[in-house]
Amino acid sequence: MLFVTHSVFESVYLSQRIVVMAARPGRVIADLAIDAPYPRTEDFRMSSVYNAFCRQVSDTLGTAIAA
Prior knowledge:
The chain is of the alpha+beta class. It has helices spanning 8-14, 42-45, 48-66, and strands spanning 17-22, 27-33.
């Protein structure tokens, strides 16, 4: 399934894989694996692992925006 979102937090919570794209021309900047077990609970959202994944995705988005 392909799910498009603009929310870093939602993407990390729901995904096994996140593909970050840059605009104009659209191109893949990064393909990130979210290696966290299912089902994901509220405890996962409060974990340092979740925080680290969110930071990695945010940093990658920052790179994509700057490109």
